[in-house]
Automatic annotation (TrEMBL), chain A:
Protein name: ABC transporter permease
InterPro entries from the UniProt entry: ABC_transp_permease, LivM-like
Molecular function GO terms recorded: branched-chain amino acid transmembrane transporter activity
Domain of life: Bacteria
Protein topology in the membrane: Multi-pass membrane protein
Gene Ontology CC: one annotated term: plasma membrane
Compartments, record wording: Cell membrane
Principal cellular location given in the protein's record: membrane
Lineage of source species: Bacteria, Pseudomonadati, Pseudomonadota, Alphaproteobacteria, Rhodobacterales
Keywords, sorted A to Z: Cell membrane, Membrane, Transmembrane, Transmembrane helix
TrEMBL record, chain B:
Domain ABC transporter: 5-236
Coiled coil: none
Record protein name field: Branched-chain amino acid ABC transporter ATP-binding protein
Gene Ontology molecular functions: ATP binding; ATP hydrolysis activity
Length: 361, 239
């Protein structure tokens, strides 16, 4: 009897955890949704088989940014706090990865340790900024102003670190030109380390990370924690009057968003083996807002799809339209805000859902 | 009877405007008490002081034997105070069920959470609207939803700020019946209300606030017959 009881408890906990993959805070449920999701994943997994290594490396580059977008989705779309400065955590983690790996090297899987430490540093910095903002009663548009200021201050600071005195151990910060020469991610393996240069192995690692983070966020957002975040977005005063410490929840959401941005930053540095202050500049800070707004900030699936689509479109425009790509991005944001404030992907998914329901009835 | 709420010398001023002028007030466990007074008397400010939304300049608030004067709002709520605002404080984009989940999930889990939600849906006649976005409910239903959110975890003290504002006579009567049932379950109720018919329906005792001070206190009959209260608030038949 005892064995049965102890067996049942974890099993039911696991079932409850996985049941939160679907819920009111995330679009998409039922066999049809998960079948399509599995098909998309299958196509993504097969992509390196039909594309050349450069194109796969480029696709890996797109995947890197989705973490920052999903994090911003949590902070802005779910918790209702528009952060204009996720790039602060992105850049900090990127530099942290560079400093740690240049000093420690690549042996014994230390690049993975550096990646984890960089994410922790970015997440902790976000918690500290979040603490001062939310416990300092900063709300609404002022959150955007403060976060933008933080990332611009960091950009300015890093841009003046050109002198030889600006070094941490062996790592020169290198001012406006940025750091370079840090090693890519390296996995210890039998018979020799696997070095993850942009190409299929890195692509598969990133694809796996995207799946884990996406599913993890679905579970988190459909949990009681996610319910409270959405309620805070809707009516923070009422949430406080239900006995929740609103500021604590906002700070935690901000920390999660910061950690996701940091993951993007560290992966970006490992991917390209460089990081510059401009990664924390105004243009870099604005782009994640466009990705998330265009896809749909209030749904993590829409955020993910929207980010990938907009990134691919942005790159194509950059190749063929040069600097006009940014103007098109701005126009896209305006069109979204005016025509489909919930986001284009959310709008399309809602429409598809209605058509599906109508055809069923 | 044991006091659940005791307010002593509560004072609050915003510049030259005194909204609470040394209020002494107490409430017994199980009471159903109404707070009335003309506009600007300080009723809502008194609620905000009780809820910790304003810090008093002087005085103490004791709830269920503990001094809560220095506590933040959410900490007071966790001690067993609950509130329903004049304008429905619900989450309009969320379904009725989600509203109730957010309200109860900190205290209840699993089957007990589901059971309480079902009970509250029945209590407020909102079973059919369980999955409806709260924002499209009628005004009266929104008010009831907020009452359900406030009482589902059985608070010790329920504060109601004009709970029947904007309701039809039928909805007002039904709300009164709900409050009697909640009071019967042992929840102490303190309500700010303008509708004297509703006050007569629910209140055992009434306090009249005027210029941030307690002007009169007594049973509903005593208050209605009070010449001073008639002059400042209720009016007289021959006017």
């Amino acid at each position: 009897m005892t064995l049965n009881t102890t067996d049942t408890v974890p099993r039911s906990r696991a079932r409850r955890l996985f049941s939160r993959l679907e819920g009111p805070q995330t679009m998409g449920s039922g066999p049809a949704f998960w079948t399509v999701a599995a098909l998309v994943l299958g196509v993504a997994a097969a992509y390196p088989l039909i594309a050349d290594a450069w194109t796969v490396g480029n696709a890996a580059y797109f995947l890197i940014w989705t973490f920052m977008a999903m994090g911003l989705g949590v902070v802005w779309g779910y918790a209702g706090a528009l952060s204009f400065g996720q790039t602060a955590f992105f850049g900090l983690a990127g530099y942290a990865y560079g400093v740690i790996t240049i000093n420690l090297g690549t042996a014994y899987g230390l690049t993975i340790v550096a990646l984890l430490l960089s994410v922790a540093i970015g997440g902790l910095f976000a918690l500290v900024i979040g603490y001062f903002m939310f416990y300092g009663r900063i709300q609404g548009v002022f959150i955007g102003i403060v976060t933008l200021s933080v990332t611009l201050v960091l950009e300015t600071f890093m841009a003046q670190t050109a002198g030889p005195q600006w070094r941490i151990g062996e790592a020169r910060l290198n001012g406006f030109n940025g750091m370079s020469g840090m090693p890519p991610l390296t996995l210890p393996w039998f018979g020799g380390d696997i070095v993850l240069y942009p190409g299929p192995p890195l692509y598969y690692l990133l694809l796996g990370l995207v799946v884990i983070c996406y599913l993890g966020l679905r579970i988190l957002l459909n949990s009681p924690f996610g319910n409270v975040l959405v309620a805070i977005r809707e009516n923070p005063h009422r949430v406080g009057m239900l006995g929740y410490d609103v500021r604590l929840y906002q700070m935690l959401a901000f920390g999660i968003g910061g950690a996701f941005a940091a993951l993007s930053g560290a992966l970006y540095t490992a991917w390209g083996q460089y990081i510059t202050p401009s990664s924390m500049g105004l243009t870099s800070a604005a782009l994640p807002i466009v990705w998330v707004a265009v896809g749909g900030r209030r749904d993590i699936t829409a955020t993910l799809i929207g980010t990938l689509v907009v990134l691919a479109g942005f790159q194509t425009l950059t190749i063929y339209g040069s600097q006009y790509a940014l103007v098109v991005m701005g126009a896209l944001l305006l069109v979204t805000v005016l025509a489909a404030p919930q986001g284009l992907i959310v709008g399309a998914m809602t429409l598809l859902g209605r058509l599906f329901q109508r055809s069923k009835t | 009877m044991t006091e659940i709420l005791k307010v002593q010398g509560l004072r609050k001023a915003f510049g030259g405007v005194v909204v609470a002028n040394g209020i002494d007030f107490s409430l017994s466990k199980g009471a159903m008490h109404c707070l009335i007074g003309p506009n600007g008397a300080g009723k809502s400010s008194f609620f905000r002081l009780l809820l910790g939304e304003h810090a008093p300049d002087a005085g103490t608030i004791t709830f269920d034997g503990s001094d809560i004067t220095g506590l933040r709002s959410f900490q007071r709520i966790r001690r067993g105070i609950s509130v329903k605002f004049q304008v429905p404080g619900i989450f309009k984009a969320l379904s009725v069920r989600q509203n109730l989940e957010v309200a109860f999930q900190d205290h209840l889990h699993g089957h007990s959470l589901s059971a309480t939600i079902r009970e509250m849906l029945d209590f407020t006649d909102l079973r059919a609207e369980e999955m409806t976005p709260a924002g499209i409910l009628s005004h009266g239903q929104q008010q009831w939803l907020e009452i359900a959110m406030a009482v589902g975890v059985e608070p010790k003290l329920l504060l109601l700020d004009e709970p029947t504002a904007g309701m039809s006579p039928d909805e007002t009567r039904k709300t009164g019946e709900m409050l009697h049932e909640l009071n019967g379950r042992g929840i102490t109720i303190l309500a700010v209300e303008h509708d004297m018919a509703f006050v007569e329906q629910i209140a055992k005792r009434v306090t009249v606030l005027h210029f941030g001070s307690i002007f009169a206190e007594g049973t509903i009959t005593e208050i209605i017959d009070h010449p001073g209260v008639q002059e400042i608030y209720l009016g007289t038949a021959d006017v």
